[in-house]
Design a protein that fits this description.
The protein has a domain at 64-198: VirB8 protein (Nuclear Transport Factor 2, Chain: A, Roll). Helices cover 45% and strands 26% of the residues. The protein has helices at residues 4-12, 42-93, 101-109, 115-133, and strands spanning 96-97, 137-150, 154-166, 174-187, 190-198.
Amino acid sequence: MQSPVAALARRLRRPRRRTADAPPVDGAQQPAGDAAAPPRRYAGSRLHLALAVATVLAAAAAGTAWDAHHRAEQRDVAVRQALATAGPAAKAIFSYDYRSFDASVANGRAFVTGPFADEYAETTSALKSTAVSEQAVVLAEVSASGVIRAGSAEVELLLYLNQYRRNANTDGEKVDQNRVVLEMHRVGGEWKVARATAI
């Protein structure tokens, strides 16, 4: 029994060109002056074309798969980094102590960027006199967090935030439980808070 490789090779073998002196097949007379028939190259050409198309498609599929995998890896890294920054950022932004108010604000300012940095500066500036007069101390702690959406340079997070507060007008310590959405942006090699929204 002939091997499939040999059979395929024989089928794809090009026919030899017949010379003018060779006897015609089946005794038929070859018309005088006619050029020899061109070799049949169609089967081989079709195979080469099919292989070329298959190679291109395979390369495109591999490239697409690699790109998707690379993007997923970038998102995973972004989420991990944003989550690692979100806790300290929320604590700094939503905490203050009337005894060291300016230092508290400077600490929070290190975690913000863009228009939100201006908003944070305006809000804390207006809050200072009240915090000092009421001797207010607020400590924020993140109890839980989750990802709303993620990209390689922007991540939106939902934080469950407890604010432990005390001041001259209250007895003991009070706890406010809040939910805050932080929009984190990659700025250079760091993650910053570009927007904070209480919900």
